[in-house]
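[worker-b] picked up task from shared queue
[worker-b] task type: protein-ligand structure
[worker-b] ligand name resolved to fe (ii) ion; SMILES cross-checked against name lookup, match
[worker-b] sequence length check passed
[worker-b] input payload:
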Amino acid sequence: MRLLFVGDVVGNLGMKMVEQYLPLLKKDLKPQVTIVNGENVTKVGRGINEKLFKQLMNAGADVVTLGNHAWNNEEIFSFIDDTKKLIRPLNYPGKDVPGNGYCQLNVNGTQVAIINLQGRIFMEETDDPFAEIDRLVEQLKKDQVKVIFVDMHAETTSEKKAMALYLDGKISALVGTHTHVQTSDAHVLNKGTAFLTDVGMTGPDDGVIGMEYEPVIKRFLTSRPSRFTVEENGSKVLSACLIDVDNQTGLAKAIKPILICKEHPYVG
Amino acid sequence: MRLLFVGDVVGNLGMKMVEQYLPLLKKDLKPQVTIVNGENVTKVGRGINEKLFKQLMNAGADVVTLGNHAWNNEEIFSFIDDTKKLIRPLNYPGKDVPGNGYCQLNVNGTQVAIINLQGRIFMEETDDPFAEIDRLVEQLKKDQVKVIFVDMHAETTSEKKAMALYLDGKISALVGTHTHVQTSDAHVLNKGTAFLTDVGMTGPDDGVIGMEYEPVIKRFLTSRPSRFTVEENGSKVLSACLIDVDNQTGLAKAIKPILICKEHPYVG
Amino acid sequence: MRLLFVGDVVGNLGMKMVEQYLPLLKKDLKPQVTIVNGENVTKVGRGINEKLFKQLMNAGADVVTLGNHAWNNEEIFSFIDDTKKLIRPLNYPGKDVPGNGYCQLNVNGTQVAIINLQGRIFMEETDDPFAEIDRLVEQLKKDQVKVIFVDMHAETTSEKKAMALYLDGKISALVGTHTHVQTSDAHVLNKGTAFLTDVGMTGPDDGVIGMEYEPVIKRFLTSRPSRFTVEENGSKVLSACLIDVDNQTGLAKAIKPILICKEHPYVG
Amino acid sequence: MRLLFVGDVVGNLGMKMVEQYLPLLKKDLKPQVTIVNGENVTKVGRGINEKLFKQLMNAGADVVTLGNHAWNNEEIFSFIDDTKKLIRPLNYPGKDVPGNGYCQLNVNGTQVAIINLQGRIFMEETDDPFAEIDRLVEQLKKDQVKVIFVDMHAETTSEKKAMALYLDGKISALVGTHTHVQTSDAHVLNKGTAFLTDVGMTGPDDGVIGMEYEPVIKRFLTSRPSRFTVEENGSKVLSACLIDVDNQTGLAKAIKPILICKEHPYVG
Ligand SMILES: [Fe+2]
Ligand SMILES: [Fe+2]
Ligand SMILES: [Fe+2]
Ligand SMILES: [Fe+2]
Ligand SMILES: [Fe+2]
Ligand SMILES: [Fe+2]
Ligand SMILES: [Fe+2]
Ligand SMILES: [Fe+2]
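[worker-b] inference finished, payload out:
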C-alpha cells in the first residue's frame, strides 16, 4: 500500500499548490491513498468549510485531516457529521464531539485506517492521546485492519517521537503536523513504523508559518494584539511524504519526504 | 567566510560523534569558524563543565554555544566568566549574568561575531530577544563587524522564523536549536540572511531527543515524575550546517544542512 | 453533617500548626469529618510519607487529600494502595494509577464521599476532570451517597469556579487548593453547593507559598535554577473552612472560612 | 495618606457597582487618592474606551489602572497618550509603548506615585517586571516621592508575593489584580509594605470571573471555541482595599480589604 500525505494546506496559496501539484504527484508516484491536512485551508488560515473540503477532494485527496484549528470556521459543524472522509483529532474531549477521529477505507480489499490525533504539550486540553490511540488501535487490530496511518498534530518534537516509539510495530506510520516546517528525519523505526516528526505545510513560504510576517513580528515586539493575515503573494511550498507499507504485516517498507519549493523545484 | 555549526551535543554519544566526525568534516569542508552547541553535553544531558568544554574545543570547536540548559551543571559558574569562547544566551535576565552572550573573533582580518539568543515562547522567562539583538547588532555594525552568526535557541518554528525575518539583511545567518530535530528548510532569505529553523541534535538517535524512551513514555502516560536518562546505546546522529558568507557584505551566499546518521552515512 | 477542611500543610511548621490547632478546632467546632490536604507535608514541601500521614491522622485528620505533588516523595508508592484514607487526584492518567481518587465514609449511618480532583490549566496533563467527576458523582448518587466533598487542586480561579458551577446542586461542597492563599469568597452557590476558590495553606507564612523567599526571588530575577527550601522560622498560618451540609438533601447550609495567623489569632 | 483601590471593573454591572458605591465609600472612608482598575470595563469585558474612562473618573476615580486587556479595545490608542491618569502596565515591551506605566500626583504637598505592573508567569511576554520596577522606584526615591502604590496584574500567588517581598520596605503597598477573586491575606509585611495577593473584581458575581458561566463551562468541556459574554444579571460584587500610609516614611500603617456583595452587604 502506498500512501501520500500532504501537510497543512494554508489559505489560497496552499489550495493553489495542491491543485497544481497533487495531480502531478499522484500521476508520478501512484499512491493508493492520498491524505491532506486541511486545518488551515480557509483564506484566513483557520478551519475549513464544505466548499474547500470538496475542492481538496477534487484535487485528489481521499481523506482530509484536521487539527487544533478544526473548529475555527463554524461551518464545519454543519457538514462534518455527514462527511466521513473529513476527520478531526480523535481525542477531542466531551460528549458527542462532532465528526469522527478516524476513517476506514477499503483499498482493493485491504483495510486502511487513517487517524487524526492531537498532542497536548503547549496545546489545547484534550483527552489523553496515548490512551485514545491505544483503544482504537486495539479495535482496528481486532477488525483485521492492517494499514494504519496517524497524522499526529502536535507542537513538540518529544511528544511526536514518544508517540511514534509507543506505537512502533503496531501501526504503519505516524507523521507529525502543526509546526508547519518539515523535519529531515523521515525513517522507519526499529520495529517497522514509518516516522517523520513534522511533514511541514503547504502554501505561502515567505512569511511565518503561512502568515504575513509584519503583523507576526509586531506581536512579538509589542505583546499587543495584532491581526494575522495569510500571505497571498511570494514563494510557495508543498510539503508531503510518501509511505510504502507491506500489506501483509502492516509495517512500513519506506518513507520518503517530499518538498516542492523555490529551493526544490518539482522534477517529477 | 565559511562557518560550520553543529547542533546540541547530547551526552557521551554526542561527544563521540563530535570526536569522530568533526575532524573529518573540517578536513573536507574547510570551515574557517566551527561552532558547536554544547548545552546538553554532560552525561546526564544537561549543562556543561570545563573538561567537556575543552574536549569540544580539542575536537575542533572554535566557539561553544549554550541554551536553556546552560546553568544545569553548577560547575559552569566557576569558569564561564573566564572562558570567552563559551557563550550563553545573550538575553538571560538579571544583573551581572555570568559569562557573555556573544564572542567576537578575528579570522584572517575579518571580524566575526557569534551570538547565542534564546526564545521565550514556551520557555523560561528571559529578556526580550528582539530588543537585545537589536542593540547588539547595532553595536557590532558600528564596530565594523561584518559576519554575524546567531544560534537561536527556541521552541517554536514561528518565533525562530519571525526573528530571522526581523534580522534579514542585517546578519549573516540565524540557525535554530533546542528542538533536537533538524528541519529541511535551510535557505537564504530574500535580503541575504541564511536561515534554518532547527539544525537538530548530535548524539543518540533511537530515543526521544536524546533520552531513553521508556522513562519519557512513562511520563507521558502517567504525568508522574520519571527520571530521564541519556541513551547510551544504539544509533547516533550528527546534525550540522555549513554557511558561506560574503565577507564584503556580510550576507550569506549559501547554507547547506548536514546530517550524519544511519540513513545518511558520511560520505565525505 | 459538619466537615472541616484544612488546606495544604507545608513542611515542619505546617505539621506543627496542625498538631497545635486541629485538636482545638475539633473540640470547639465539632466537625464529624476532618479532611487535611497533605501534598506538601514533607520537610522539603513536596509529597508525603507513611510516617507523616499517620502523624496527620493522629492529629485529627479522618482523610488526607493530595495534589500535583502527590508523587514527589517516592515512599508514597509503597503504602498508598493500602491506605484508603489517603487519596490522590481522581483524574491522574494512565492504567493502574496507584491509590484511589476518593474515599467513602459511613458517619453515623450517613454516607460521605471525599474526592480529590485536579485542574488542568497551567498544570500537569491529566484526564478531563469534568468527565471524571461526572462519572463518579453519578455512581455515588446511585449508591445513595448524599454528602459529597471535592478538594479541587487547581491553579486558576476560572477553572475552580467553572467546576463548582458545573457541579452546583449535585455535590455538597467544592473547595479549591494549590495556590496556597485563601480567597475571601466562601459562599453557598445558587443551587446549594458550598464553594471557596482556595482554602489556602497551613505552615510558614513569611515566605512565598511556604518557601523561603530569597531563592524564589533569585529564580524570578535570573531564570536560572535555584533550590527552594521550606521556611523553618517566622510566622505561621493555618487555613481551613467549615461546611455544614443537610444530610437529607446533601446540599450545603453554610460555609465559613477559618484563618489562624498573626493577624487573626485563634480565639476559640 | 489614605488610598482606596478598587479591583478590575467588569462590564456594565461593574460600572454600576462603581457608580453606586464609590461615592459612598469615598464619603465614609475619605481616601485622598482613589485608584480603579479598568481593564475589563467595556461591555464585552475587555479593554476600555474614553467614554468609560471618563465615567470612572466622574464616579470618583483619581487614577485608572489597566492590565493584560489594556489593548483589547483599539480606541485606547487614540487617547491614552494624552490621558496621564490612565496607566497601562509599566513593563509592556517594545519601543514607544503608548501611554505611561505610572503617574505621579501631588496630594496636598505629598508626592504619590501610582504604578501598574504586569507579571509574566502564565501571561503575555513582557519586559522583566523586577528590573523595570527597580529602575522606577530608584528614580522616584531620588525625586523624593514618598508614597508609592503598585497594582501588580499577575496570575500566580507566588509571583505577586515574591514581588511584594522584593519591594518590602521600599514602597507603600503592592496589591494584586487579574485573578478576579479577592484573597484574604491583606497585611503589612515585615518591613512596612502593605500587601494583598489579589483585591478581586467588581461586577457580576454569579458567573466565572465576570463571564456568563455556560460558555465558559462549554469551553472547558469541549476545548472548542466558545464566545464568552459578560454576565448582565444576577448578583454583583465590589472588591477593594483601603491603605493608610505614613507620609514621612512612605510605609504602610494598615491595609483593610473591602467586599460589597450579597454575603457582605454595605453597612457604611
Ligand atoms: Fe496547521
Ligand atoms: Fe495546528
Ligand atoms: Fe538542547
Ligand atoms: Fe534547549
Ligand atoms: Fe500545595
Ligand atoms: Fe499543588
Ligand atoms: Fe481583569
Ligand atoms: Fe487581566
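[worker-b] attaching auto-annotations
[worker-b] Residues 168 and 190 of chain A are 8 Å apart (CA to CA).
[worker-b] releasing lock
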